[in-house]
Specification:
Blueprint (H helix, E strand, L loop, with lengths): L23 E3 L1 H10 L5 E5 L9 H6 L4 E3 L4 H13 L3 E7 H7 L1 H9 L6 E5 L16 H6 L5 E3 L4 H13 L4 E5 L3 E3 L15 E4 L4 E5 L2 H13 L6 E5 L2 E3 L3 H8 L5 E9 L4 H12 L5 E6 L9 H7 L4 H12 L1
Parallel strand pairs: 2-3, 2-4, 4-5, 5-7, 6-7, 10-11, 10-13, 13-14
Antiparallel strand pairs: 1-8, 6-12, 9-11
Helix pairs in contact: 1-7, 3-5, 8-12, 9-10
Length: about 325
């Protein structure tokens, strides 16, 4: 591990996940929703006192008559969204992932999912994207939402994924839970002729030695790792899985079934109940048995601190991932 890294300040607890000099797009969710709402009058925006911090303020400024500030009351937020959906509106609801999945789970389950209502739930600070400790780190949100019947679950990688995801989820009838990256969001996938399709995994790059199956920011990390490991003659393929549920089983089985490659599932989520366990289950059911490894957050309450430090500590930084995979293929 490098010892000459710059000293980090408190602001690094909430710093952008973008690397130094990396291309970004500002508030891709807010701008995409505003653009879509210009065409669809059924869209309403709702939040629990977090418009500015989920980029919903862009929608609010464009459509104040279609914006609803519900206060710091996430259960009320979900219940009201269900009511709007019953009346024919399409609510886009924003809050932090911890507040939705821990405080309002029963309301999403009973009021929204059971009636298959057309509510789109976009949640910021997914996984380890904040340094403010367990109260704000949604390390288990995918496990909780995967378990909810009828709920589609999405974990986008970058600004392009988010921009293309918004109209796609609006075209899907039924409830959706999507992780949200906010503020200055890295732009990565436009270099790979990528297009988001709901329910589809995409092979971003091929490789003969290792297949990394990833979602969310871990696809960005996996692509960085693949470039780094070229110097060590390790050829890494990256399969991006933005839709966690329903899983694109056929594509995953096809790629994982190719002989001679280590299969690594990388996710910004606890080892329990997320993408890794979902893929492991499908591989076993199909009798596909590659050498299998997982890079994920531990089953633990995570520390508070600067994000770069925490990403190193928990093994999801580019540098640590590169070393981990290199040791596995030796």
């Amino acid at each position: 591990m490098s010892t000459n890294k710059p000293k980090l300040k408190t602001s690094a607890m909430i710093a952008s996940i973008a690397g130094e000099g990396q291309r970004t797009a500002s508030a891709p969710f807010g701008h995409a929703l505003k653009k879509l709402a210009e065409e669809r009058s059924d869209i309403v925006g709702m939040t629990a006192d977090l418009a500015k911090y989920t980029d919903l303020h862009i929608f609010r400024e464009a459509f104040p008559e279609r914006f609803y500030q519900m206060g710091m009351a996430e259960q009320l937020l979900m219940g009201a969204a269900a009511g709007f959906a019953h009346e024919g509106a399409m609510p886009f609801v924003t809050t932090y992932a911890v507040f939705a999945t821990r405080r309002a789970y029963d309301f999403m389950h009973q009021a929204i999912a059971e009636d298959n209502l057309n509510v789109k739930i976009a949640c910021a600070l997914p996984g380890l994207t904040t340094g403010y400790g367990p109260s704000h780190q949604a390390a288990e949100d995918l496990a909780l939402m995967r378990a909810m019947p009828g709920m589609t679950v999405i974990d986008p990688c970058d600004a392009l994924d988010i921009e293309q995801m918004v109209p796609a989820v609006a075209d899907h009838k039924g409830p959706i839970y999507m992780r949200l990256l906010r503020g200055k969001v890295p732009m990565v996938l436009d270099e790979y002729d990528y297009k988001f399709e709901l329910g589809k995994a995409k092979l971003i790059r091929d490789g003969r030695d290792v297949l990394v199956i990833s979602s969310g920011i871990m696809t960005m990390r996996a692509l960085e790792v693949a470039k780094e490991l070229e110097a060590d003659n390790v050829d890494v393929a990256v399969l991006h899985v933005p839709t966690i549920k329903p899983l694109d089983t056929s594509t995953i089985l096809r790629e994982a079934g190719r002989l001679g490659r280590l299969v690594v599932v990388a996710e910004n989520h606890t080892t329990i109940g997320g993408l890794g366990e979902a893929i492991g289950t499908e591989l076993l059911r199909a009798g596909v048995t590659p050498q299998f490894r997982q890079i994920a957050l531990p089953d633990a309450f995570l520390d508070a601190g600067a994000l770069p430090t925490l990403h190193d500590r928990y093994g999801i930084s580019t540098e640590v991932m590169s070393n981990t995979i290199k040791n596995w293929v030796r």
